[in-house]
Amino acid sequence: MPDLLLELFSEEIPARMQAKAADDLRRMVTDKLVAEGLVYEGAKAFATPRRLALTVHGIPARQPDLKTERRGPKMGAPDAAVQGFLKATGLQSLDEAKIQRDPKGDFYIALIEKPGRAAIDVLAEILPVIIRTFPWPKSMRWGARSGKPGSLNWVRPLHAITATFGIETEEPDVVKFAVDGIESGQTTYGHRFLAPGAINVRRFEDYDAKLLAAKVVLDPERRKDAILTDAKQLAFAQGFDLVEDQNLLDEVAGLVEWPVVLMGSFEPEFLATPAEVIRATIRNNQKCFVVSDPKSNRGKLANRFILVANIEATDGGKTIIAGNERVIRARLSDAKFFYETDLKTKLEDRLPKFEQIVFHEKLGTQAARIKRIERLAAEIAPLVGADVAKVKRAAHLAKADLLTEVVGEFPEVQGLMGKYYALAQGEDESVAAACEEHYKPQGPADRVPTDPVSVAVALADKIDTLVGFWAIDEKPTGSKDPYALRRAALGVIRLIAENALRLSLVRVAASALAGLSVKPADAQKLPSDLLAFFADRLKVQLREQGARHDLVDAVFALGGQDDLLMIVRRVDALGKFLETDDGKNLLAGIKRASNILGIEEKKDKRNFEGAPEPALYGLDEEKSLAKAIGEVTAEASAAVAKEDFAAAMTAMAKLRPPVDAFFEKVRVNDDDPKVRENRLKLLGEIRSATRAVADFSKIQD
Amino acid sequence: MDASLPAHMRPERSFQGFILALQRFWAEQGCVILQPYDMEMGAGTFHPATTLRALGPKPWNAAYVQPSRRPKDGRYGENPNRMQHYYQFQVIMKPSPPNLQELYLKSLAAIGIDSAVHDIRFVEDDWESPTLGAWGLGWECWCDGMEVSQFTYFQQVAGFECAPVAGELTYGLERLAMYVQGVDRVYDLNFNGRDGDAKVTYGDVFLQAEKEYSKHNFEVADTAMLFEQFKMAEAACKKYLDAGWREGNRKEHLMALPAYDQCIKASHVFNLLDARGVISVTERQSYILRVRELAKACGEAWIHTEAGGAA
């Protein structure tokens, strides 16, 4: 079956848009083919800075024929109706129509056969539409045609379209169409500098090979592999290690068609500037990699960088390296200057400026926010075993680095610079660490701080954010979470769980709320509302870890649970218990009891609550169940009181044999209504006994 | 590069030779070579030959040097490459020719940048001027990791769609010349290409000015006067715009250019006030909006003039 080759050759496509564009092109073309009844075998798309390319192979040469029937007028209908029918169906006369009988009479039926069209014609129709409606994040007009309405929008000027269709053994046909004056053909161009000439292509195989000969590596994955391999080797040859950076690699691979990896150096004096600043300078501004020196302790940076050029220079790259070194030297001088300037001002002396900076229109200035965090952090400090004075100091200084030159230039080193500047002005180590760590954890993979000072400020920072945005009703909705509140909540959960902290979230949230200048209408409800949000985040986190998130509901259903650590531990113990046979069977027994109770309560329109009457126990199984419930309740409650949830579960396990025996031997709906009622009450007791650890009815099977 | 040039005129030897080489190259592409506009402005884009001529259907190809005044960027002559006054070389071609990228690369070759040894790249950079109500898509052009030009396809100017689209190139002249001459400090650029006693450097020409203007811009510029000048320029701009409609019919405008001068004036006065630090963050936005309103109104007037209108 024939294959399609499509290439859209343009001026430089932004690196960040290339991967999605290739994917969109593949999806749009193949979706359209399938919708047209052309089921293909495979498709693959590629992008370079100057082209999007797509190969679809195994497309049927023709669409399948379509047969449809169309019902016309009744026999003997007025002539106008008959003429209309003939016209619409293309029949010459009624003789060509079939007659079909149904309860309403005899009707004319036209059989219409629509022969499938040649795939190449279908392609000629769908490709221009796809090009015209391509979903670029930003697109533009250009050239003389842009003066007229309806001109093409593309990411940058589009210069050529290659579109061929055919089977391997034959010369393929050009899929003929034109978009905004650009005629499809089979001519593309090589590397802008190394092989700019026109190339005639037939199909994907020779296209890919001819491009390679014309110094264009079509597949971005191949370019990335080549860059990574060469960069590692180049670093290794000089006794260094490449500092790998996936995002940078993705970007750099989108800036070159023919990657040539080169190494440059800078003056070792610059290494006195923090490594993160050097890396940010070299990476963000110059899109170059840094290398580390394995011989130094802690693998410090070496005074080298790795750049990826787009040409094989005739001087072997000497000029390119020298040019990049010049720029990097100038950039590093700037960074060094920023860093040294920053060191001249104490962090606290920067704080007055925060009075002028609005954090959020409704939540006041940054200065007000820092004051709130200070107060809240001081309150949290004793709960997490932190020194109150240090916590206050840390909260006071933690945001100050936002106003430094280095952070202004490289926002990603916020916090870290705060730590450096705090240490430089002789702050306590924990205070300095908190300047960095109070932003942590930033995501599910980020490290959770353990120093109590960091923990207190981190919690205060996040809880102030959450309560603040809750108070002004800026909660996350669907995919929108502009203030990263989900991440903040998950951060709080991890800080508490991983540091085994005991604190009442409701109380801390209420305190944070009291510190706000805005007073929401439903202030009473806010802390519990926020707690439900935490429960949701906890569920999401458990689900992502592959744990049972329904257990969170089973624990929250007990009510009054706002100690996250206890919730996490209960969920954990419950999860382990439910993995055992005892756990599974007990859960089944409890569910059965709940079901029976539910049905009977509905039938009788009453509850069967309250203690059963021992005198009415007629069978041994009833007695032993009642006895077991009593023992287990006492044992589990004692274990829960000691916060030993595993022991509480072990106690629960003892219920399993008597529950199983009860259901095996005892008929609940006894003929004697008194006995029946008593037995239902006994079932109710099972349910309440297990509520010592969780509401089992909320657990999914 | 033209091998017949005397040594002191070669672009890699002299700053003026460098500018002349660019002018000559673009003249050969059919551009009119204009002289700098006789008003203070923050960028070559403000020149009416770009801002206004980018609007309307008539073809327009021009190139010129424009001194750019950025009061806030002054460093008292102490920074090796940051100045409150520097030169931009501006090219505007409407409609953008299909080979504008190739022309740009050839212009680099004309000033001594050979693409066989230099790594030249087009890196995404979308351009937007809030004060001009203008935006476009394009790139910053890199040479061996250094940004040397801005390349933009104008999509909108003064709030109006560009139809057809103009292509705009802006070269940072000092930076490029420093690279070509191989100097690290702008003031060390050889201005006239001569040696020994006859040599004049960029510092000889501009260092004193940088020191004086930095003091003026940051410390002394008369803010009361400037606030007044802003208001006057704004009022004058509006007045000329109103008065410019032929017989008040809003079909034909006769004074778009004088009105636009006042817009340029207001913009520069705002930049000076900003450098003096007397405009707060919130006020800043409103000043930018006021200049933009003037620019838009001037654009509206322009498209009703002979050069800016249809036919």
Automatic annotation (TrEMBL), chain B:
One of its GO terms (biological process) is glycyl-tRNA aminoacylation. It is found in: Cytoplasm. It catalyses: tRNA(Gly) + glycine + ATP = glycyl-tRNA(Gly) + AMP + diphosphate. InterPro entries: aa-tRNA-synth_II/BPL/LPL, Gly-tRNA-synth_heterodimer, Gly-tRNA_ligase_asu. It is an enzyme of class 6 (ligase). Pfam families: tRNA-synt_2e. Its EC number is 6.1.1.14. GO terms for cellular component: cytosol. Keywords: Aminoacyl-tRNA synthetase, ATP-binding, Cytoplasm, Ligase, Nucleotide-binding, Protein biosynthesis. Signal peptide: none annotated. Its main location: cytoplasm. Tetramer of two alpha and two beta subunits. Belongs to the class-II aminoacyl-tRNA synthetase family. This is Glycine--tRNA ligase alpha subunit. It comes from Bradyrhizobium cosmicum. The lineage of its organism: Bacteria, Pseudomonadati, Pseudomonadota, Alphaproteobacteria, Hyphomicrobiales.
